[in-house]
Amino acid sequence: MFGEAAPKPAEEAMEETPAEAPEAKAKLLRKSRSTKKPQPKLPKQLRKLLKKSRKPSKKLQPKLPKQLRKPLRKSRKLSKKPQPKPPKQLRTPLRKQKPKPTKKLKKTNYSTKTNAGKKKPAFFLSMPFILEAHQDLDYNITILGRDYRLPNAQTRLRDRQTGNDVYGGGSLLGLPEYNAAQVGLVFGTLFSVPERHHNPKFKGEQFYNTPTEAHRIYWNQLDFYHKLAETQSEAFRLVLTKRDLKSHMELWQTQTNTLKPIGIIPLMEGAEGIVDLDDLPAWWERGLRVIGLAWAGNRFCGGTREPGKLTHEGKDLIRAMAEVGFVLDLSHMDEPAALECLDLYPGQIIASHANAAKLVKGYNSNRLLSDQVINKLIARNGVIGVMPINAFLNADWNEDGGKPAVSLRLVAEQIDAICQIAGDARHVGIGTDFDGGLGVEKVPVEINTIADLPRLFPFLEELGYDSKEIDRIASGNFLDMVKTTLPD
To answer: Is the pTM above the cut of 0.90?
Structure first.
């Protein structure tokens, strides 16, 4: 078969002489390795024809008339059927037309839209004004001796020298940093702790045993805000009326080369300072504008880690508050008490610093808000100040990698969750609680001081929020509330 030489006839093999046999045998073996039989040499013309025939051949086509050849050449280039051209007047709009953006939210009445992969204009050239709904200014200034007129670096240096950083952590505040972030208005708290929550290692901490002691501490703190505005007016101003608010906002809207003062609206965190309901008008006249019933549990209601419903004294208190015109703050209230207040209180309700509990990994407490409370707050036209505090963004944050594992994106997702429930961006703001016993070590990785707070806004932009909506979140929603509740 193929690859072997054909055997010779027997007669020829016998005629070979012994000397010739090996040479002849070698020639036969060389020939046997060839698989092709020798071909007779062909004439030169035939050889040329054979070479051409080995190339891939195309079937010869009959030659077409000249006028038909060009259209055929063009038709070979087209892979699709040609489309009819639109009328000339429609061509320019068609080129400029962009794909329609899809709605970000499930609610059909919400205007937020998102264009995947598309960059929005850099509106941060005009940074949003920020209203910060919860800061323990008096407590930090009077108890820890912090001077918030100074740059933050100087406050941290002093804290290390005095040991204050052991209690409160690294400070996040300072007048230059407020200005850098456009934080121009805060709810400044009146705050103290009941003795059962007193930290014995912190020698300078104020605490109370009785409502009378709480009343004295809180009244002195409110007096201090007045003195601060009088003696340090270049850094702090009280905003107690609509006229004050208008003047303060006009100041922040002007372009100056000097640092602008921080406006303060007083807020009582824990109502134990109210000894008698008849004292409420005096608190209002002195400048108190917002009251939160609880920090821990008290005679009015349950609070953080101390559950309880709204008591009879609590119901009497909120009725008297409504008559005067106070804003009610639900922060720290146990859920049954908060739900009762949402049903009973006729005035304005907010949560100055609270997050949505369901988004917080590993969370198991009563400090944050359930969807039921959020829904009722929104139905009552309330505003929720979202907190950029690690423990209220991921309860397992230490185990998950510490500060580097927590991003401001989680804050943006908290804001977005509230907007999704509401169907709009009109019921959420910012309530940091910076320097509220929690320092730089316990806030998201992007935050070193309050100057970094605007780093939140690009995360909101990524989620589809436009500049007007971010303005509302930064301050607009709380400002609307303040405008309607401050006296003339």
So the answer is: no
